[in-house]
Specification:
By secondary structure, this protein is an all-alpha fold. It has 16 helices and no strands.
Amino acid sequence: MERTRTTKLERSWIAYDIGNSAFTLLITTLVPLYFNALAKDSGLASHEYLAFWGYGQSATTLIVVFLGPILGAWADGSGKKKQIFLGSVIIGILIMAAWALPTSWLTFLIFFVMARVAYQASLIFYDAMLVDITTEDRMDTISSYGFALGYIGSCVPFILSLLAILLRDKIGISLKQAMIIAIIVNAIWWLIFTLPLAKDYRQPSYMSSSDVKVTNVFLKLWQTLKMVAKDKKILLFLLAFFFYIDGVSTIISMSVSYGDSIGLGATTLLIALLVTQIVAFPFAILFGYLAKKISNAVLIKICIVGYFLITLFAVQLDKNWEFFFLAICVGIFQGGIQALSRSYFARLIPKDRSSEYFALYDIFAKGAAFTGTTVMGVVSQVTGRQQMGILAIAVFFISGYILFRLSVKTPHSPQIQPEITVE
């Protein structure tokens, strides 16, 4: 009989999604406004501080792409997944708290990059823990609960932060002081919801209990890359994931900018973003439930098609109600496609190499986030129409759908476990 109640370890793992999602919501909404204010006070022109903000985002992506697989190989080779995860979290929280110190725009940007790198590194090991904290038949459900509660939970510190900013004149504080309150609230929230996982998690599977030298870490990473290249099922999935999550990431990251470009106010955009988070909560749980009745792969394909239709609708968007309708539609599919992709991949990989494989998973996600926004920007600039930039993203969903279908139909290739000597 299938177990329906969550275990203490499963709840602890889900709790971290509640904590880290607050960081994501903060840095995609309020933090850019704070950075813009710091840069403007220093005399930078609008095009200059927007450019530097973009450079910071790109720097984060490149650092994580390089660092993630190395840390993943180290964790799987030494059994220190938990220690590296907690180290990333602590560094991220401390640097985030340092945002509240009086700083220049450049210092703040450097601190932002450092905190975001630590945050992204923690997610590699958090995702990799999924194979350890639950059984295979419950991965879809637990992964979905994580995203669902993360969406709704992150609204609490976000609303508190938003109130501090919107009511700052009435309570007699400046924008900088309001942002300091928001930063401290979100840092504490992140810390509190990390504690259960820090207490309860133990790593059951890893390659060796011996010390791992740097040379062996790179050797393990190279062997993992060769294993992925030989297994067409995993390789095709990662390529499919790259394309369709590219479209998802681009829609998430560019929606506010697109709404602003058609004349919607900042308050309207923030409310629409909240609507997305609230709608994503029940639908992420719903997709987790449906995964018990319907194939995980079928549900992922439905989500990809849903996002494709969202993209087509966005091309003609020019009214407030249409933007809110779009926000609702994104919320319907956002949690499902992220949660089910995570659990689908977790089933494909060897447990004792989960950190390494999820580091590669993260690389494909980060590369997608970088590529999608670039393609959208270039197409919009060349054609002179931002609608064409959005339409270009539809191609990513088509490519992702085709590659994912091929992945589902492809059997696992025979794997030869590499012989790695740890000195």
